[in-house]
Amino acid sequence: MSVIFWLSLFIVCYSYVGYGLLLYFVIRVKRLLHGHSQHGDSSFIPSVTFLVAAYNEEDFIAEKIKNSLAMDYPADKIRFIFVTDGSSDRTNEIIAQYPQVTLLYHPQRKGKMAAVNRAMEQVHTPFVVLSDANTLLNPSAVSLLMQHFADPATGVVAGEKKVMPTTGGAEAEGEGMYWKYESLLKKWDAELYSVMGAAGELIALRTALYEHPEEDTILDDFMISFRINMKGYKVMYEPAAYAMETSSASLGEEYKRKVRISAGGFQSMGRLLPLLNPFRYPKITWQYISHRVLRWTLAPLSLLLAIISNTLLVIGQAGNIYVVTCIAQVCFYGAALVGYLLAKRQKKVKYFYIPFYFVFMNVAVYIGCIRYFRKRQSAVWERAQRSVAVQ
Questions:
Q1: So what's the pLDDT on residue 391?
Q2: Which residues on neighbouring strands pair with residue 166, listed in sequence order?
Q3: Is the dihedral of CA 116, 117, 118, 122 positive or negative?
Q4: How many CB atoms within 10 Å of residue 31?
Protein backbone atom coordinates (compact mmCIF):
# COMPACT_ATOMS: atom_id res chain seq x y z
CA MET A 1 0.00 0.00 0.00
CA SER A 2 2.88 2.36 0.77
CA VAL A 3 4.35 1.65 -2.68
CA ILE A 4 1.03 2.57 -4.30
CA PHE A 5 0.87 5.78 -2.28
CA TRP A 6 4.39 7.01 -3.00
CA LEU A 7 4.23 6.00 -6.66
CA SER A 8 0.90 7.81 -7.05
CA LEU A 9 2.27 10.91 -5.35
CA PHE A 10 5.35 10.83 -7.59
CA ILE A 11 3.27 10.56 -10.78
CA VAL A 12 1.06 13.52 -9.79
CA CYS A 13 4.02 15.69 -8.79
CA TYR A 14 6.02 14.76 -11.88
CA SER A 15 3.10 15.37 -14.26
CA TYR A 16 2.31 18.86 -13.02
CA VAL A 17 5.57 20.17 -11.57
CA GLY A 18 8.45 17.72 -11.97
CA TYR A 19 8.35 17.61 -15.75
CA GLY A 20 8.55 21.39 -15.96
CA LEU A 21 11.52 21.51 -13.58
CA LEU A 22 13.33 18.70 -15.40
CA LEU A 23 12.59 20.27 -18.77
CA TYR A 24 14.01 23.59 -17.60
CA PHE A 25 17.17 21.85 -16.35
CA VAL A 26 17.62 20.06 -19.69
CA ILE A 27 17.27 23.23 -21.76
CA ARG A 28 19.70 25.07 -19.47
CA VAL A 29 22.24 22.35 -20.25
CA LYS A 30 21.39 22.67 -23.94
CA ARG A 31 21.98 26.43 -23.79
CA LEU A 32 25.40 25.89 -22.22
CA LEU A 33 26.36 23.44 -24.95
CA HIS A 34 24.78 25.06 -28.01
CA GLY A 35 23.71 28.56 -26.99
CA HIS A 36 20.24 30.02 -27.58
CA SER A 37 18.43 28.99 -30.74
CA GLN A 38 18.09 31.59 -33.47
CA HIS A 39 14.80 33.42 -33.95
CA GLY A 40 12.90 33.33 -37.22
CA ASP A 41 13.78 35.30 -40.32
CA SER A 42 11.64 38.46 -40.48
CA SER A 43 12.44 38.86 -44.19
CA PHE A 44 10.59 35.64 -44.97
CA ILE A 45 7.15 36.81 -46.21
CA PRO A 46 5.47 33.99 -48.16
CA SER A 47 1.94 33.82 -49.54
CA VAL A 48 -0.49 32.62 -46.89
CA THR A 49 -4.17 31.79 -46.47
CA PHE A 50 -5.94 32.89 -43.29
CA LEU A 51 -8.64 30.30 -42.53
CA VAL A 52 -11.42 30.62 -39.96
CA ALA A 53 -14.12 28.04 -39.20
CA ALA A 54 -17.23 29.54 -37.59
CA TYR A 55 -20.59 28.31 -36.41
CA ASN A 56 -23.41 30.72 -35.47
CA GLU A 57 -21.09 33.60 -34.56
CA GLU A 58 -23.32 36.51 -35.66
CA ASP A 59 -22.58 38.48 -32.47
CA PHE A 60 -18.81 38.39 -32.98
CA ILE A 61 -18.03 37.56 -36.60
CA ALA A 62 -17.89 41.17 -37.84
CA GLU A 63 -15.32 42.03 -35.18
CA LYS A 64 -13.34 38.91 -36.11
CA ILE A 65 -13.31 39.87 -39.79
CA LYS A 66 -12.22 43.44 -39.09
CA ASN A 67 -9.47 42.16 -36.81
CA SER A 68 -8.33 39.68 -39.47
CA LEU A 69 -8.28 42.24 -42.29
CA ALA A 70 -6.17 44.53 -40.09
CA MET A 71 -3.27 42.07 -40.07
CA ASP A 72 0.07 43.75 -40.68
CA TYR A 73 0.88 41.61 -43.72
CA PRO A 74 1.19 42.51 -47.43
CA ALA A 75 -2.32 42.51 -48.87
CA ASP A 76 -1.18 40.80 -52.08
CA LYS A 77 0.23 37.87 -50.09
CA ILE A 78 -2.66 36.99 -47.82
CA ARG A 79 -6.05 35.47 -48.66
CA PHE A 80 -8.97 35.15 -46.26
CA ILE A 81 -11.35 32.17 -46.15
CA PHE A 82 -14.22 31.78 -43.68
CA VAL A 83 -16.05 28.43 -43.62
CA THR A 84 -19.41 28.28 -41.85
CA ASP A 85 -20.93 24.85 -42.39
CA GLY A 86 -24.32 24.52 -40.72
CA SER A 87 -24.61 28.10 -39.48
CA SER A 88 -28.28 29.03 -39.13
CA ASP A 89 -28.05 32.62 -37.91
CA ARG A 90 -26.82 35.79 -39.71
CA THR A 91 -23.16 34.71 -39.78
CA ASN A 92 -23.12 34.10 -43.55
CA GLU A 93 -24.98 37.32 -44.27
CA ILE A 94 -22.45 39.34 -42.29
CA ILE A 95 -19.42 37.67 -43.90
CA ALA A 96 -20.87 38.32 -47.36
CA GLN A 97 -20.60 42.06 -46.68
CA TYR A 98 -16.79 41.81 -46.91
CA PRO A 99 -15.60 41.21 -50.49
CA GLN A 100 -12.04 40.56 -49.27
CA VAL A 101 -13.25 37.37 -47.60
CA THR A 102 -14.09 34.13 -49.42
CA LEU A 103 -17.12 32.51 -47.83
CA LEU A 104 -17.47 28.73 -47.95
CA TYR A 105 -20.83 27.50 -46.75
CA HIS A 106 -22.58 24.17 -46.70
CA PRO A 107 -25.98 23.73 -45.05
CA GLN A 108 -25.10 20.39 -43.50
CA ARG A 109 -23.42 20.59 -40.12
CA LYS A 110 -20.79 17.89 -39.71
CA GLY A 111 -18.44 19.58 -37.26
CA LYS A 112 -15.35 21.74 -37.33
CA MET A 113 -12.99 19.07 -38.66
CA ALA A 114 -15.20 18.36 -41.67
CA ALA A 115 -15.48 22.10 -42.35
CA VAL A 116 -11.71 22.65 -42.14
CA ASN A 117 -11.00 19.61 -44.34
CA ARG A 118 -13.35 20.98 -47.01
CA ALA A 119 -11.86 24.47 -46.78
CA MET A 120 -8.29 23.17 -47.03
CA GLU A 121 -9.10 21.92 -50.53
CA GLN A 122 -9.43 25.60 -51.50
CA VAL A 123 -6.06 26.59 -50.04
CA HIS A 124 -3.44 27.04 -52.76
CA THR A 125 -0.79 29.00 -50.85
CA PRO A 126 2.26 27.23 -49.37
CA PHE A 127 1.22 28.20 -45.84
CA VAL A 128 -2.07 28.46 -43.97
CA VAL A 129 -3.00 30.06 -40.65
CA LEU A 130 -5.93 28.58 -38.73
CA SER A 131 -7.71 30.76 -36.17
CA ASP A 132 -10.83 30.33 -34.06
CA ALA A 133 -13.81 32.56 -34.78
CA ASN A 134 -14.12 33.80 -31.19
CA THR A 135 -10.57 35.15 -30.87
CA LEU A 136 -8.83 38.43 -31.69
CA LEU A 137 -5.21 38.50 -32.88
CA ASN A 138 -2.51 41.10 -32.54
CA PRO A 139 -1.75 42.85 -35.90
CA SER A 140 1.70 41.29 -36.32
CA ALA A 141 0.56 37.73 -35.58
CA VAL A 142 0.75 36.35 -39.12
CA SER A 143 4.14 37.95 -39.81
CA LEU A 144 5.58 36.56 -36.59
CA LEU A 145 4.31 33.07 -37.32
CA MET A 146 5.57 33.02 -40.90
CA GLN A 147 9.15 33.99 -40.06
CA HIS A 148 9.73 30.60 -38.39
CA PHE A 149 9.07 28.78 -41.66
CA ALA A 150 12.34 30.09 -43.04
CA ASP A 151 13.67 26.97 -41.30
CA PRO A 152 12.71 24.03 -43.56
CA ALA A 153 12.56 21.73 -40.49
CA THR A 154 9.59 23.66 -39.11
CA GLY A 155 6.22 22.23 -40.07
CA VAL A 156 3.92 24.03 -37.64
CA VAL A 157 4.09 27.23 -35.60
CA ALA A 158 1.84 27.64 -32.58
CA GLY A 159 0.77 31.03 -31.34
CA GLU A 160 0.00 32.08 -27.78
CA LYS A 161 -3.45 31.91 -26.22
CA LYS A 162 -4.33 34.76 -23.87
CA VAL A 163 -7.40 34.85 -21.65
CA MET A 164 -8.73 38.40 -21.51
CA PRO A 165 -9.89 39.99 -18.24
CA THR A 166 -13.61 39.41 -17.93
CA THR A 167 -16.57 39.70 -15.64
CA GLY A 168 -16.33 35.92 -15.05
CA GLY A 169 -15.67 34.23 -11.73
CA ALA A 170 -13.17 31.62 -10.63
CA GLU A 171 -13.33 29.87 -13.99
CA ALA A 172 -11.77 32.99 -15.52
CA GLU A 173 -9.01 33.11 -12.91
CA GLY A 174 -8.37 29.39 -13.14
CA GLU A 175 -8.24 29.28 -16.92
CA GLY A 176 -5.93 32.29 -17.04
CA MET A 177 -3.52 30.79 -14.50
CA TYR A 178 -3.55 27.43 -16.29
CA TRP A 179 -2.70 28.98 -19.66
CA LYS A 180 0.15 31.01 -18.20
CA TYR A 181 1.73 27.80 -16.96
CA GLU A 182 0.99 25.99 -20.22
CA SER A 183 2.56 28.82 -22.20
CA LEU A 184 5.74 28.52 -20.19
CA LEU A 185 5.90 24.77 -20.82
CA LYS A 186 5.31 25.34 -24.54
CA LYS A 187 8.19 27.79 -24.65
CA TRP A 188 10.51 25.25 -23.03
CA ASP A 189 9.16 22.34 -25.11
CA ALA A 190 9.89 24.27 -28.30
CA GLU A 191 13.36 25.22 -27.12
CA LEU A 192 14.21 21.59 -26.43
CA TYR A 193 12.72 20.25 -29.66
CA SER A 194 9.01 20.76 -30.37
CA VAL A 195 5.75 22.00 -28.86
CA MET A 196 3.56 19.13 -27.69
CA GLY A 197 0.35 20.05 -29.50
CA ALA A 198 -0.62 23.45 -30.86
CA ALA A 199 -3.68 25.34 -29.65
CA GLY A 200 -6.35 25.82 -32.30
CA GLU A 201 -6.87 29.48 -31.40
CA LEU A 202 -3.84 30.30 -33.58
CA ILE A 203 -1.80 27.77 -35.55
CA ALA A 204 0.16 28.02 -38.82
CA LEU A 205 1.36 25.14 -40.96
CA ARG A 206 2.84 24.13 -44.27
CA THR A 207 -0.11 23.38 -46.53
CA ALA A 208 1.64 20.43 -48.20
CA LEU A 209 1.99 18.65 -44.85
CA TYR A 210 -1.70 18.80 -43.98
CA GLU A 211 -3.41 15.42 -43.71
CA HIS A 212 -7.19 15.37 -43.63
CA PRO A 213 -7.93 14.10 -40.10
CA GLU A 214 -10.97 11.89 -39.61
CA GLU A 215 -14.17 13.97 -39.59
CA ASP A 216 -15.06 12.71 -36.11
CA THR A 217 -11.84 14.18 -34.70
CA ILE A 218 -12.56 16.12 -31.51
CA LEU A 219 -9.22 17.88 -30.98
CA ASP A 220 -8.41 18.99 -34.52
CA ASP A 221 -5.46 21.22 -33.58
CA PHE A 222 -3.86 18.43 -31.54
CA MET A 223 -4.13 15.86 -34.31
CA ILE A 224 -3.01 18.21 -37.08
CA SER A 225 0.15 19.29 -35.27
CA PHE A 226 1.17 15.84 -34.02
CA ARG A 227 0.71 14.16 -37.37
CA ILE A 228 3.06 16.73 -38.87
CA ASN A 229 5.39 16.04 -35.93
CA MET A 230 5.34 12.37 -36.88
CA LYS A 231 6.58 13.27 -40.36
CA GLY A 232 9.79 14.57 -38.82
CA TYR A 233 8.93 18.28 -38.64
CA LYS A 234 9.08 20.50 -35.57
CA VAL A 235 6.24 22.48 -34.03
CA MET A 236 7.64 25.86 -33.02
CA TYR A 237 6.18 28.40 -30.60
CA GLU A 238 5.80 32.15 -31.10
CA PRO A 239 4.48 33.81 -27.90
CA ALA A 240 4.52 37.27 -29.49
CA ALA A 241 1.79 36.13 -31.91
CA TYR A 242 -1.27 35.74 -29.76
CA ALA A 243 -4.98 35.05 -29.89
CA MET A 244 -7.14 36.66 -27.22
CA GLU A 245 -10.43 35.26 -26.01
CA THR A 246 -12.56 35.54 -22.92
CA SER A 247 -13.05 32.72 -20.46
CA SER A 248 -16.11 30.49 -20.33
CA ALA A 249 -19.25 32.32 -19.24
CA SER A 250 -19.91 29.97 -16.33
CA LEU A 251 -18.67 26.91 -14.51
CA GLY A 252 -21.13 24.86 -16.52
CA GLU A 253 -19.70 26.09 -19.82
CA GLU A 254 -16.13 25.55 -18.63
CA TYR A 255 -17.05 22.06 -17.44
CA LYS A 256 -18.47 21.14 -20.86
CA ARG A 257 -15.34 22.47 -22.54
CA LYS A 258 -13.00 20.54 -20.25
CA VAL A 259 -14.96 17.31 -20.65
CA ARG A 260 -14.87 17.68 -24.43
CA ILE A 261 -11.11 18.27 -24.40
CA SER A 262 -10.60 15.24 -22.15
CA ALA A 263 -12.70 13.00 -24.39
CA GLY A 264 -10.71 14.30 -27.34
CA GLY A 265 -7.50 13.53 -25.48
CA PHE A 266 -8.41 9.86 -25.19
CA GLN A 267 -9.42 9.76 -28.84
CA SER A 268 -6.13 11.38 -29.86
CA MET A 269 -3.99 9.05 -27.75
CA GLY A 270 -5.63 6.08 -29.44
CA ARG A 271 -4.84 7.48 -32.87
CA LEU A 272 -1.29 8.49 -31.95
CA LEU A 273 -0.16 5.20 -30.38
CA PRO A 274 3.11 5.09 -32.39
CA LEU A 275 4.30 8.17 -30.48
CA LEU A 276 4.64 5.99 -27.38
CA ASN A 277 7.53 4.15 -29.05
CA PRO A 278 10.81 5.94 -28.14
CA PHE A 279 12.77 3.88 -30.68
CA ARG A 280 10.60 5.17 -33.51
CA TYR A 281 10.19 8.74 -32.23
CA PRO A 282 13.16 9.34 -29.89
CA LYS A 283 12.84 13.14 -30.08
CA ILE A 284 9.16 13.24 -29.17
CA THR A 285 8.17 10.35 -26.89
CA TRP A 286 9.49 11.69 -23.57
CA GLN A 287 7.95 15.11 -24.05
CA TYR A 288 4.67 13.67 -25.36
CA ILE A 289 4.20 11.22 -22.47
CA SER A 290 5.29 13.68 -19.79
CA HIS A 291 3.32 16.70 -21.00
CA ARG A 292 0.22 15.06 -22.44
CA VAL A 293 -0.32 11.35 -21.83
CA LEU A 294 0.26 11.34 -18.07
CA ARG A 295 -2.17 14.24 -17.53
CA TRP A 296 -4.94 12.36 -19.31
CA THR A 297 -4.26 8.92 -17.84
CA LEU A 298 -2.11 8.14 -14.80
CA ALA A 299 -2.17 11.53 -13.08
CA PRO A 300 -5.97 11.67 -12.49
CA LEU A 301 -5.94 8.00 -11.47
CA SER A 302 -3.01 8.61 -9.14
CA LEU A 303 -4.88 11.43 -7.37
CA LEU A 304 -7.61 8.95 -6.43
CA LEU A 305 -5.16 6.20 -5.48
CA ALA A 306 -3.10 8.60 -3.36
CA ILE A 307 -5.99 9.59 -1.08
CA ILE A 308 -7.35 6.03 -0.82
CA SER A 309 -3.99 4.41 -0.08
CA ASN A 310 -3.06 7.21 2.31
CA THR A 311 -6.29 6.75 4.27
CA LEU A 312 -5.73 2.99 4.52
CA LEU A 313 -2.16 3.54 5.71
CA VAL A 314 -3.39 5.88 8.44
CA ILE A 315 -6.02 3.37 9.51
CA GLY A 316 -3.32 0.69 9.60
CA GLN A 317 -1.09 2.97 11.72
CA ALA A 318 1.75 2.76 9.20
CA GLY A 319 3.52 5.82 10.62
CA ASN A 320 3.23 9.52 11.41
CA ILE A 321 4.43 10.54 7.95
CA TYR A 322 1.20 9.16 6.51
CA VAL A 323 -0.85 11.10 9.04
CA VAL A 324 0.87 14.29 7.89
CA THR A 325 0.36 13.55 4.18
CA CYS A 326 -3.26 12.59 4.79
CA ILE A 327 -3.94 15.85 6.64
CA ALA A 328 -2.26 17.74 3.78
CA GLN A 329 -4.48 16.03 1.22
CA VAL A 330 -7.63 16.65 3.25
CA CYS A 331 -6.70 20.34 3.58
CA PHE A 332 -6.06 20.56 -0.17
CA TYR A 333 -9.41 19.03 -1.10
CA GLY A 334 -11.08 21.12 1.58
CA ALA A 335 -9.64 24.23 -0.05
CA ALA A 336 -10.88 22.96 -3.42
CA LEU A 337 -14.38 22.54 -1.98
CA VAL A 338 -14.31 26.08 -0.59
CA GLY A 339 -13.10 27.29 -3.98
CA TYR A 340 -16.01 25.53 -5.65
CA LEU A 341 -18.55 27.09 -3.27
CA LEU A 342 -17.04 30.54 -3.83
CA ALA A 343 -16.99 29.99 -7.60
CA LYS A 344 -20.70 29.23 -7.50
CA ARG A 345 -21.11 32.72 -6.01
CA GLN A 346 -18.78 34.26 -8.62
CA LYS A 347 -16.16 35.15 -6.00
CA LYS A 348 -12.42 35.06 -6.66
CA VAL A 349 -10.10 34.01 -3.83
CA LYS A 350 -6.66 33.09 -5.10
CA TYR A 351 -5.76 30.52 -2.44
CA PHE A 352 -8.93 28.55 -3.09
CA TYR A 353 -9.47 28.77 -6.86
CA ILE A 354 -6.11 27.17 -7.68
CA PRO A 355 -6.86 23.87 -5.86
CA PHE A 356 -10.45 24.09 -7.06
CA TYR A 357 -9.46 24.46 -10.72
CA PHE A 358 -6.90 21.65 -10.39
CA VAL A 359 -9.51 19.23 -9.05
CA PHE A 360 -12.05 20.57 -11.54
CA MET A 361 -9.74 19.69 -14.46
CA ASN A 362 -9.07 16.19 -13.21
CA VAL A 363 -12.73 15.41 -12.56
CA ALA A 364 -13.39 16.47 -16.16
CA VAL A 365 -10.81 13.90 -17.30
CA TYR A 366 -12.78 11.09 -15.64
CA ILE A 367 -16.04 12.25 -17.20
CA GLY A 368 -14.39 12.79 -20.59
CA CYS A 369 -12.93 9.27 -20.48
CA ILE A 370 -16.36 7.80 -19.76
CA ARG A 371 -18.00 9.84 -22.50
CA TYR A 372 -15.38 8.82 -25.04
CA PHE A 373 -15.54 5.09 -24.36
CA ARG A 374 -19.34 5.20 -24.33
CA LYS A 375 -19.13 7.09 -27.64
CA ARG A 376 -21.22 9.95 -26.26
CA GLN A 377 -18.88 12.79 -27.23
CA SER A 378 -19.78 14.27 -30.60
CA ALA A 379 -17.20 15.93 -32.83
CA VAL A 380 -19.85 18.44 -33.92
CA TRP A 381 -18.97 21.69 -32.22
CA GLU A 382 -21.26 23.62 -29.95
CA ARG A 383 -20.79 27.34 -29.73
CA ALA A 384 -19.26 28.07 -26.33
CA GLN A 385 -20.79 30.78 -24.18
CA ARG A 386 -18.05 33.26 -23.22
CA SER A 387 -17.75 35.89 -20.51
CA VAL A 388 -17.98 39.60 -21.29
CA ALA A 389 -14.59 41.26 -21.60
CA VAL A 390 -13.75 44.06 -19.21
CA GLN A 391 -13.82 47.37 -21.11
A1: 45
A2: 389
A3: positive
A4: 12
Confidence of residue 130 (pLDDT cuts 50, 70, 90): very high
Report the alpha-carbon angle 147-152-155, nearest 5: 80
* CA pair distance 156, 207, nearest whole angstrom: 10
The amino acid sitting at 217 is T
For 157-185, letters b (16+ CB in 10 Å) and e give bbbbbbbbebebbbbbbbbbbebeebbeb
Cα(82)–Cα(86) distance, integer angstroms: 13
- Cα angle 218, 222, 224; round to 5: 100
> How far apart, in whole angstroms, are the C-alpha atoms of residue 199 and residue 221?
6
Which domains does the chain carry?
Answer: 1-36+253-379 (no CATH), 48-247 (3.90.550.10)
Cα–Cα distance, 330 to 311 (Å, whole number): 10
Return the percentage of the chain with pLDDT > 90, whole number. Answer: 71
**Integer Cα distance of 345 and 156 in angstroms:** 41
Q: What pLDDT does residue 57 have?
A: 92
**Three-class secondary structure of residue 242 per DSSP:** strand
Q: What is the pLDDT of residues 330-371, one digit of tens each?
A: 999 999 999 989 888 877 777 888 899 899 999 999 999 999
